[in-house]
Predict the 3D structure of the following.
Amino acid sequence: MRTTIIMPVYNTAHAVIRAIDSVLHQTDPDFELIIINDASPDHADHIITEHLKKVNDSRVRYFLNEQNIGLSETRNRGLSQARGQWLAFLDSDDAFTPTFLERMHHWTNDEIDVVVCAHDVVTRDGNQRTRLRGKTGIFTGHEAMLKLLRDETTPYVWDKIFRASTATGHTFPTINRIEDAAYIIPIYQKARKVRFIEESLCLYSVNPHSVTWGSVPPIQEMYRYMNYLKENTQIHQGSKQEQGALAVTWCLAFLNGAQSALRLGVSNAPNYLKQCQQALAWHIVVRALRTRPVFGAAAFLFKLSPKVYQTFYTRYVQRAYGID
């Protein structure tokens, strides 16, 4: 079997059939689809069960978690069932274009272990635009890892295919909201070659009520993420280039948390923002400035004035995602 596609489901009864059908209508038919319902509190189980009866496709396997175990463990359950030579992931409120598998595999060869495509962002009002992050081409796994740490490419799993033999032994850690990057980075470090292509092959739907947009990650989760990267890559002991890339990731982790608190207006925002400011130590900000000036400057501005920073960030989110 060529590809295993893993799809976790939670609170997406309104969109899950579109996601399923986007897989079943692939022009490359050599795949299996593993759907795992993470004890979704809506009527997703009924909708999925009835739809699968109608399509009657032996390539689909459906699992229902008895209790909610979270995104990471749900994906890991899918990984334990995977039989494909390649791995792909799809969130149940997003979709693949019909040629996703065909085109992604077109760009593989004996040395390519990961392929990354562009994607279309679909906002709440239905507007759609293509987003390509970074340069296209072939890079070593180490180069791809640094690109991700410097935020020069996407930190998502759903716009990629992974060679299963390269990803063997890697699972999703239970780290709130940063599980995708935490899964990808060690794989990049192990990969021989990673190819980035300009074709847009995924539809990413912006959902302001999703975990990404509708929650504030606990401060300790950002620290857990950084410690996880240190333990699994050792780049904090590496070259200046590696330490600079890690500094960018550090700044972005705490800036993203602060952005959520500012946007959602949570009751503990002042204390939360203060903790984020403390986490952004000046030596880390300086390293980030030298590596990716725009993010170093953002961290610098946030440390000086969260209110001024919020003004610039709000404008960016409105322009890029259509979220107020």
Q: What stands out?
A: The radius of gyration is 20 Å. The chain has a mean pLDDT of 93. Residues 216-321 form one domain.
